[in-house]
Hints:
- With 123 residues, the protein is mostly helical.
- 77% of the residues lie in helices and 0% in strands.
- It has helices spanning 2-25, 31-77, 85-108.
- The longest helix has 47 residues, at 31-77.
- The protein is elongated.
Amino acid sequence: MLLLLLLLLLLLLLLLLLLLLLLLLSSTTNYYYLLLLVLLLLLLLLPVLLLLLLLLLLLLLLLLLLLLLLHHHHHHHHHHHHPPPFTVTKYVFTQWLLLQLIAHIGGHACFTNSPCFDGFKAD
């Protein structure tokens, strides 16, 4: 349907160009005919353009409706069970404790930038 309308619009535009070319090639300098022709073609093109605009608006509306339906479906069928805030706090605190322990053990070990590493260097 949309393709057909686009083809019709293209055909009308080609017709307009052809008629303008014929008028320019003709030796008559009567601009009233030219003006009348342009107005007539605009009147023919106007319903086609309005129909195309309407179809575009309908397409956008359908897309919006689809997005809303998908959003609604996502929220009603995919429940994300978030843990309570206290559980999150406990989890973060446990991670922090583990990091402190690793850092403490690591502090007693010899790192590459540490002076005690010199004794472990390969000959």
